[in-house]
Amino acid sequence: MTALSPFAAVILGVVLALWLGGAVWALASGQRMRREGTQAQGKFDRLAVLLASAPAAPVIIHPDGRLEAADRLAKWLGKTRVPAFVSELVAEDGGLEPDDAAALSREIAAVQRAGRSFALAVRGTGSTRLLLVRGAPAPPGLAESGGVVLWIFDATDSQSEIQSLKEQVEQLRDALEALAGLLEAAPFPMWHRTPDLRLSLVNSAYVRAVDAENAAEVIANGIELVEVAGGVSPQAAAAEAVAQDAPMDRMVPATIDGERRTMRVVDVPLGPAGIAGYAVDQHELEQARVEHRRLEAAQRDLLDRLSAGVARFGADRTLRFWNQPFISLFGLRQEALADAPLFERVLDQMRDARRLPEHRDFPAWRGERRNWFLSPEPQEENWLLQDGTHLRVYAQPLPDGGLLLIFEDRTEQVQLSSARDTLLRVRTATFDNLFESIGVFSADGRLQMWNSRFRAVWGAPEDLLATHPRIDDLMRAVQAQLAKPQQSNLVRELVRAATVERKQRTGRVGFADGRIFEFAAMPLPDGNALFTMLDVTDSRRVEQILRDRNEALEQADKVKTAFVTNMSYELRTPLTTISGFAEMMSAGYAGELSEPAKGYVDGILQSTARLSMLIDNVLDLTQSEVSGLPIERAPVDLAAVARDSLERAREQASAKGIEMAVTLQDDLGRVKGDARRIGQAIDHLLENALRYCGRGARILVHGDGTEEKARLIVSDNGPGMTPAQQKAAFDPVERADQARSGGRAGIGLPLARQLAEAHGGTLTLLSEPGQGTMVTIELPRG
């Protein structure tokens, strides 16, 4: 083995060192690249997971039409696999609606040509799923030049949410409009302030109260309803309501319509929305309170002057008022009543003075009288005292829970009544067996004499009649016999007229058992009044039968009108469906139609349009007969409306060979009304003329006017009409008879007349057999 030279050894060492260093560097670089590759792979995996969980499915379209897409696109399109080419995606069976597929194809081509972005909503075939497609040119490195990247989003849920939000917005808008209408219709001033206390909204009542032109003027000028009261301005009161976060209520003066009024003003804080307020006029209430105090004082003065004893107790059953006759009648001491004793204590004092009826169980009797405070109706009793005094006691519960007692000394009246009872019984026997019901009332309204027929008719007990009751008491006792108890007032008034006014009166009254009587009250020479009653039940029953029959006929007419209206509305739904499908077929949604099929579809559309117009006419005619047609009020150019109607009728006129002429003078001008309704009236007149005129006839439309009214004339040289036909044209009964007999019962002329009358105008018909027909519509300018 040859030994290396020193130089060769050095060279070899250097080479080995360089080789070792390169190996170390290569190993280090490999480790670094491996780490970077691992990081890149992890990042790639994370991006892949992120892309898979993204709400959008990416689609890459290469220039040659190849398509790369996420697997979920197949599920969205209802396919088992993702389309491999864009032609499969936009094909008829690609999973998209045909129109949407065609639109997507055009947008992709536009991106490839012009490089612009697009956004398009498409739907799957036979699916409710909505897909949002956003397209743009593919960036370099993702696809070659001419490539397109699509992001497809499933927007079904978001679209449903958007629709739900739209519906909520519509509901809130309707609620806001309803609230605004309520505020505007409020009869008292209402307003709203912004958080900086400036007026932002006022209603019409506010505008009227401050004598402003409109709400805008009030808001612009900051016109306040009330003045500064007690050093507090309206803005300061609103600020205080905001500070306390509670409604503020105050009474302030205000000048309304030139008068000083007392207003109750309320400010209601609404949080960040500002402050609402309203004002209620309390002037009448304050005046009513003053008037109530005056009336109460006058009532006390009046009660104090009555000859009857009066005592008033409060809700706590303490004595609040009494008059001098009350003290004298019951022998009470005034100082004993000055301490406002209780009701029971007052009764004890009356008993001590021996001025109460004798009762074995006085505490129980007193407890029953205490219930007068709780009685819903007034109570009346007759007390017989030990000394023979007869008292009429009237107990009236008061609204405040108190009780008003009135004691009337009727001793003398009872004695006189007893003396006259004998005379009355003798006189009663004279006519007790008469067929008519007879009663004699004295000048003071008391029943003096009566026969058995009178007692039987009224069902009055003999003991009541024996007391010779006044007409008021008698009617109060027997008013339950009447079909309408309030008719007892009529009987009282007739007796009062005969006894006091000395006038003869008659009337009629019905009883609860169905009987009907005619009665008369006649003054007698001795100052009394004769009251007679005659049974007319049978004749009234015949009259009622005729009246019921008439009401039944009127009700039947209302039912007919309601039925026609409901049926017209019910016919609209299938008619709209037929028309809609026919229009879709005519537009080619169901495929290309043959020429005969197109003719059939056109016939369906014409027939549905004709039927829709007939339904509208029936609704208009029915509505006008029931409650009047709704008419708008706006300036109407009558010449333009007439020309439009002529254009609509020209095709039918040409088909029948009828000549149409028009002469519209400049003074025809405008009227204030409903252009659509006036056009309907002219259409009906033209249609009526075209229907009855034969080939070669001539129809003329003429228009002129004056300062007060405008006139439109539609005339023809057709067969004309007889007077009977003219009458039948506007008579609903005649039209119904024609319809039942198979005749042509058109509603054009009646509806045209009602349209003209709804505008305050008139429609007149002039026709002679063989001379044609002329119909004139006159409409007022205003």
Explain how this protein is built:
With 782 residues, the protein is of the alpha+beta class. A 5-stranded antiparallel sheet has the order 2-1-5-4-3, with helices on both faces. Strands 7-6-10-9-8 form a 5-stranded antiparallel sheet. Strands 12-11-15-14-13 form a 5-stranded antiparallel sheet. It is extended. It comes from Sphingobium olei. Residues 566-782 form the Histidine kinase domain.
Task: Please specify the SSE layout and strand pairing.
Layout: H1 6-53, E1 56-61, E2 67-69, H2 72-77, H3 86-89, H4 98-114, E3 118-123, E4 130-137, E5 148-154, H5 156-185, E6 190-193, E7 199-202, H6 204-209, H7 215-221, H8 234-244, E8 248-256, E9 259-269, E10 275-281, H9 283-305, E11 309-313, E12 319-322, H10 324-330, H11 334-337, H12 343-352, H13 362-370, E13 379-384, E14 390-397, E15 403-409, H14 411-430, E16 437-441, E17 447-450, H15 452-458, H16 462-466, H17 471-478, H18 488-499, E18 505-510, E19 516-523, E20 529-535, H19 537-586, H20 595-626, E21 634-637, H21 638-656, E22 659-664, E23 670-673, H22 675-692, E24 698-705, E25 709-716, H23 723-730, H24 732-740, H25 748-758, E26 762-768, E27 772-780
Parallel strand pairs: 22-24
Antiparallel strand pairs: 1-2, 1-5, 3-4, 4-5, 6-7, 6-10, 8-9, 9-10, 11-12, 11-15, 13-14, 14-15, 16-17, 16-20, 18-19, 19-20, 21-23, 24-25, 25-27, 26-27
